């Protein structure tokens, strides 16, 4: 709603506005219009992503988050196969681009997202660690525990005992 309001104030009518994107179709806003959009959105906590590589990085992040959210005990999809299928670029290109822009490997980003989801499930306290391990596609509880500890410095059991929601990080801050 905020983006729509700002664009309307500037007499810009995109064809479509969705989470993270304003599609202007064939119309290309001028540099002055882009600058004005940025000047109005930046103080409101928004970031303008205007180059092709940055947009691709955002698509990669969205797909990783989608994969983590839909795991739910389904057969574990290989990250490389999933990304290639859903973004239509070779995985090596996506991985190299992601690492060069984000300073973290795509695989590490994926692991961090999975651990954040595990934290969420632990805080909700509805599933056992074994069930969480299965739901998140880990080969074993030991694999989950080792990965959790390497990312957080805590065992899942210790984290669960803390019940500290503030230790979770917003997915867009990863």
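Sequence proposed for the structure above (174 residues):
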């Amino acid at each position: 709603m905020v983006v729509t309001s700002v664009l309307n104030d500037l007499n810009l009518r995109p064809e479509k506005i969705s989470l993270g994107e304003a599609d202007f179709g064939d119309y290309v806003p001028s540099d002055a219009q882009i600058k004005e959009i940025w000047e109005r959105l930046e103080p409101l906590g928004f970031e303008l992503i205007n180059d092709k590589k940055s947009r691709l990085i955002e698509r990669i992040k969205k797909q990783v988050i989608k994969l983590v959210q839909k795991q739910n005990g389904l057969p574990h999809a290989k990250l490389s196969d999933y990304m290639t299928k859903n973004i239509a670029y070779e995985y090596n290109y996506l991985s190299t681009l992601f690492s060069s822009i984000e300073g973290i490997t795509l695989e590490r980003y994926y692991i961090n997202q999975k651990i954040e989801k595990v934290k969420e499930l632990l805080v909700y306290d509805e599933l056992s660690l074994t069930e969480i391990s299965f739901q998140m596609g880990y080969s074993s509880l030991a694999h989950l525990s080792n990965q959790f500890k390497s990312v957080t410095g805590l065992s899942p059991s210790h984290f669960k005992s803390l019940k500290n929601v503030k230790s979770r990080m917003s997915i867009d801050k990863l």
